[in-house]
Amino acid sequence: MTVLAPEIPSQTNPAECLVSHPTACPSWCRDRHAPVAHEFGPSVTSHWGVQARLDNPAAFGAGESFMRAELYRYDAGSEVGATTMYVQGQTDVEMTAAEVDVLLVQAQAFVDTLRVLRAQMG
Structure pTM? Predict the structure, then answer.
């Protein structure tokens, strides 16, 4: 039995091997130097920013966050989409006085980060 392999055309330029998307990445895009890391399809590209986190001082498990935010832009074809801020949060957290003190300091830093993200939205 003979198995025939499909013919694969040679590519002389390594840049031709990269998958790209039709729109340029915004300055805040976490994958702007890695085109294949984007969530994309034949005609859409999702740009995600670096996630800002407000840690939960009373977390029951490692890595839990009280709130998180990141910039997001959904481009369709060559059309550049609107930049939005994606915010997610946890509710009903019971904290001690010391944990509230930590939360207040972290919350102020988180709000300052949100202001920077808002400025990047244009």
Answer: 0.68
